[in-house]
Design brief:
Low-confidence stretches: none
Structural class: alpha+beta
CATH topology: SH3 type barrels
Mean pLDDT: 87
Largest sheet: 5 strands, antiparallel
Number of helices: 2
CATH architecture: Roll
CATH class: Mainly Beta
Radius of gyration: 12 Å
Oligomer: single chain
Strand order of the largest sheet: 3-2-1-4-5
Helix content: 25-40%
Shape: globular
Number of strands: 5
Order of helices and strands: EEEEEHH
């Protein structure tokens, strides 16, 4: 199963390479934000993350509702967090 996980942008690493650092449930990873280049992602923004790519900006309320729903899914959420922990971009 593939899920989009809400992630909080904590740092913009490289504007030219479209890299940012995001926090997902305490796991910090470099992610690709090029799909949101027109939306100017900055620290404090929430994004919907899938396999290392930010797919959409979302607001904090939407992020919290999505995280609550994902936690209720149990194993699928845990698997996605583990996959994120193993991934590397940049």
């Amino acid at each position: 199963m593939c899920l989009g996980i809400p992630a909080l942008i904590v740092e913009v690493l490289d504007d030219e390479r479209h890299l940012a650092k995001a926090d997902v449930a305490g796991v910090r990873r470099n992610i690709d934000v090029r799909l949101l280049a027109d939306e100017h992602v900055v620290p404090g923004d929430w994004v919907l993350l899938h396999v290392g790519f930010a797919m959409a900006k979302i607001d904090e309320e939407e992020a919290q509702m999505a995280l609550d729903s994902l936690r209720m899914m149990g194993a699928a959420y845990d698997d996605e967090i583990e996959a994120l922990d193993r991934s590397r971009i940049g």
